Each structure stands twice: as structure tokens, then as C-alpha cells.
Sequence to fold (467 residues):
Amino acid sequence: MYNNKSLSLATPVIIALCFALSIPAAAEAETRVAEKVTDTDFLREHEDFDPPWEYTIAEEQPTVYYTRYPLPYEAPDGLWSSWGTGEVHSSGKVYTAVGDHKGIGGDSHLFQYDPETRELRHIGGIFETIEGFDSEKNYGLGKIHGRLSEGADGNIYFAGGQGTSRDREHYKGTHLFRLEPDTGRIIDLGRPMFGWSTPSTHFNQRDMLLYAEMMIPPVHLGGDPRDDFLDPLVEELGRQPWRLMVYDLEKERVIYFGGKEQSSASRDLFVDADGHAYVGGPEDGHLQKYDPASNYVRKLDVKMPGDIIRRTAGPDQDGMLYGISRDREDNRMYLFRFDPETVSIKVLFEVGRDCAAMGLDVENGFLYFLPGGKNSAGWGSPLIQVDLHDKSRKVIGFLHHPVWEKYDFHLAGSYNLMVSDDGISVYISFNGDESEREFAERPHGHGFGDQAFVEVGVPDSERKSSR
Fold:
């Protein structure tokens, strides 16, 4: 299943050496163990940390483990990236995805982190599971923008997405996939909609429904083998169209496709405790609700602060959902609470920086987020804990400087933050690299190209809620 890792028969000396050391040749390259970060101060406040809200800093040091991802090959242009949210599986293991950002031949890879052994293991790539895929000609799936979601059957479901914006005329649409954690098999479930891409997904585990926001890239191949509505639709709307797709994994077919007449360019959506989905609707910030019982979408009266959903979390023990949104006019970011029962929204506070990494500790009533989508280092990569009962904010640790000083790795931002079921550990995938050059001097104008995985153990003394 692993790409570009097979040993040539012309290298018997290497093979013999590996057996002599009792280390499988492939396993050594495809697994890394997270190392405890010692002799450093995670509570040292970053000099540029200046949020528009009051905060405290934890009194007890977090326990932090760090490792680089065991990436399977050197990515084109050095641009490995992670844009989706992983999954803490019911087994306790953590699953994440990293893409090579490519268009033609683009591939994304899955990884498993075991909190008991702290091994980060490469599972495999997704394009090799697609029958007839030619990496020299076919536009691949160089990103996974949505979530990895565990189904009622214990398997993990997700959608691939297009990589670079170049060569989009070759893009034929996203594929859905299933990962079987017990066997490590990745299975292609096919292309649900020709020509459409998937920037964000969520999941209704009870009904085994995958919710996906769908968009057509600005340039696409057209020529749908089932119908030819793509080009007329783009021409009719005069803009890039978005839709909500609902895919029934048990029936293996799309059961709903509609809503979202206008683009809100969101990268996440809500799912409540009853399995209803809520997506950003027209550009005025109103939410739209999908009801599985009626298989219908309707616009709600409630309006978000801003018009673009960056990340969602929940429900918590009271059924509340939490979102971070951005206002396109003034670029301000807000954390808000959405009550699906009363259909009401309460703004909790302005976040202050772009943020697409957030997770919920349901058991203890805390929400964690990491400000800085593409540059968390600007504030020192602070892991923020929000007490959902009194809304107080606490910095559990500033992660950037200690990691940079010890490992020469620049934590340049995250879109992937997960919390263990017991709330003890927070898992974060970081885009980053080994350079502290200014952003303008970096390849692609970003602070990333490589990948790191960090586990933050939150001390018991810092998990005492005000409730």
C-alpha cells in the first residue's frame, strides 16, 4: 500500500543489513515516535501575543510530545500541507491526513497516531485505490479539505479534494473513501458528482450520512458522462456555484444535492445531536438547515457574526454547537455559540486572528483553539482553553518557540486540532518548515511545506471547570 518505498532487488546489501538489525526496511521510514519536549518553558509569553480579550496563562507546564510526519516522498515544490480535521477514533488512536498539494498526479496520505506508544505511522495514499488512475495524466486529490469521520461501523469516511489551482481543466471531481482501521485498507467509494470539489465535510454517524459542501473549480473539464449541466449552471449564475451534497453510505448514492445558491466559501459546517446539518447560506450570513427526515434544506432566520464558517465544534453536553466565523468585509473573526433548539446565536468574543483549528472537550466543558490558520507563529502558536461556563480564556502553552529552539522547526499554522475523549490530550497537526525566513521570502509565500504532529497533555490542575 505504501508508495515509492519498495526496495530494489539490486540492493541485497541493504536488505541484509536491515534483517541483521531486525528492523523492517519500510517500517523504519514509515513510522516515527513523538519525543517528549523537555528543558523548555511553554508558559513563557510570546512577545507579540496581543489578543482583543482578557486571558490568563496556565500555572502548570503542559506535557508536550513532538515529531515530524514520516512523509512517503519529497513533495513537488516542497509543499506538503494539511487542510482538514482528523479524527480521534473510538479505539483511542488518532487519524490525520496530509496532501502533496499537486494537481496532476496529486495524492493525499493517511496517518495513524497511537497515544500509548506515541508512534506516528504512515498508512498509505489514496490515488492508488482509484481504478485506472494514471498519475502522469489524471488530476488527482492532492488535498483533503474536509473531516475524517468515524461511522457507526467503526470505519473512517472522508472525501478527497483538488490540490494546486494549476491544470484545473483536467479535474473531474472528488472521490469518497473509506479507511478500515483494523486492516489499514483504504477503499475508493467512487465519484459522487462529476466535476464538483469538496472543500468541507461533516458526518451524521447515526444515519451514516456524509454531508459535503460542493463547489465547481473556476475551470473544469465539463462533459459530464451523466448530464451536461455544469457549464450552463456556471454561465447562468455568473459565479462559482456551491451546493450541499448528502451521500447515504448505506444506500451508496447521493440522496440530496441543492441549497447554498450563493457562495459563502465556508470550510466547515455544523451537525447537531439529532443529525441535522447546518451550512453557511447566502452571503448575508444566514444559516441553512438540512433535515434528514424531510430530505430538505430551508433557510433559518438566525444570522452568524460574519458570513464564512472557518471551523465548528460540538455538540457539547447541552447540545450547543460552536463556530468560528469570518466577516469578509472587515476580516474580523468571531467565536460564537449556536443553539439548534432555540435557533439562536450568541457571540462569545472576537478571536483576533484567523483560526481554523478548534476542538471540544465535551466531558469537562472546555473548548480549545489555536489562532493562526497559516501563521500561528505570529502569536507564538498559543493553545487557548475556553471555559464554556464562564467564558474565561487561558493559554495552556505557547508552542512555537520551544519547538523551534529545540528542533529547528517553525510551527507555521494549523487547520487540525483534536481533543481526546477524556479531555487530557490535545492533538495538533502543524503546517511548517525548518526556516524562520520572512513569509515573503518563503516558497509559495507561506510558512509551510513540511508537517509536524504535536500532542499537548493538559495538566489536571488546568482542567478544573468553573461549573
Summary: The mean pLDDT is 85. The chain is about 5% helix and 35% strand.
